[in-house]
Design goal:
The chain is α/β, with parallel strands linked by helices. It has helices at 42-45, 68-71, 81-93, 108-120, 137-142, 159-166, 171-186, 211-225, 255-267, and strands spanning 29-37, 50-55, 77-79, 99-102, 127-131, 149-152, 190-192, 195-205, 230-234, 273-274. Helix 9 links the parallel strand 9 (230-234) and strand 10 (273-274). Helix 3 (81-93) crosses helix 4 and helix 8 (211-225) runs parallel beside helix 9. The chain is globular.
């Protein structure tokens, strides 16, 4: 029985024996929603939508998480690996542009065999690994050859911010190591007819008062990847979940804060940057986690 070391918390619990670590995930996958999602980056959603599979539970404790119902409260349905394989294949039949695995790391023991079975059964969609980026090096290496597009967050550049808002002070070091590994696996972006088929897309949610840290993140990305990756600068922060308990982030982002980050990206010569309008800062885009298609 493997002792879980899928993320840097290295809980070393035996999932198969019913033990639970920080993320509270079990041995089999728990899924909250299977959908064609229209609100991802345009080169992922296309016209028909990204084939998202939202997994329950999470190994981070982000105080502003918009998906707290599944990440913290653990809503979802447990599915076998065979059913998970079928879910992946069904997304392709629905016409999805990609197969997008959302917060998948806690369930890699189930996802990896299910993905292999799906590919053996004819799955051809590009596989997107939508992740908070907080996973172990061994877990990331196990995904080599199975993932076409990595879609990680880069949440913080400072250990103090990572500890305060996500309960993981080592996050900056972990994400920087992992981004380099991800890029070594998938390389630069490959687009066909406006849709991304392969590559690395780094998401960064700009937080109130932390726009200088956002600029530090952009500087690091420019220094390490030049203009060879896509960066998604998100302007959709709302003080959700436990954020009201933290006064400095208990408000929406100002136009000034977001524009300072966008201007800094320009100053670095970055051209593959996706930006959002201010009206994206709403809870209207939070999915209805109702177990549909699970």
């Amino acid at each position: 029985m493997p002792k879980c070391e899928l993320c840097p918390r290295t809980c070393r619990v035996s999932r198969r024996a019913g033990q639970r670590g920080v993320c509270q995930a079990g041995w089999e996958a728990k899924v909250a929603l299977v959908s064609l999602h229209q609100w991802e980056e345009p080169f992922l959603s296309g016209t028909k939508g990204a084939g998202t599979v939202f997994f329950s539970n999470c190994n981070l404790r982000c105080v502003f998480c918009q998906n707290a119902r599944i990440s913290a409260e653990g809503y979802g349905k447990v599915v076998s690996r065979e059913r998970l394989r079928d879910i992946f294949l069904e997304q392709e039949k629905r016409g999805a542009t990609v197969l997008e695995l959302v917060t998948p790391t806690p369930y890699l023991y189930a996802i990896i065999p299910a993905l292999k079975m799906a590919k053996q059964s004819g799955l051809t969609l590009p596989v997107v690994y939508n992740t908070n980026g907080y996973l172990s090096e061994n877990a990331l290496q196990a995904l080599n050859g199975l993932v076409d597009i990595y879609l990680p967050d880069f949440k913080y550049n400072q250990n103090a911010s990572a500890k305060r808002y996500s309960g993981a002070s080592d996050y900056p070091e972990v994400i920087k190591r992992n981004l380099k590994l991800m890029y070594s696996q998938v390389g630069g972006p490959v687009l066909q007819n406006g849709l991304l088929k392969r590559g690395l897309v780094v998401r960064h949610l700009v937080l109130p008062t932390l726009y200088r840290e956002s600029c530090e993140i952009l500087q690091w990305l420019a220094d390490n990847f030049a203009d060879n990756i896509y960066i998604s600068l998100m302007n959709q922060y709302v003080p959700f979940y436990r954020a009201p308990k933290y006064p400095e982030i208990n408000r929406r982002l100002t136009t000034y804060e977001y524009e300072k980050v966008v201007d800094y990206a320009r100053s670095l010569g970055l051209t593959k940057v996706l930006c959002q309008e201010r009206n994206c800062a709403t809870t209207d885009y939070i999915p209805n986690f109702n177990g549909q298609n699970v």
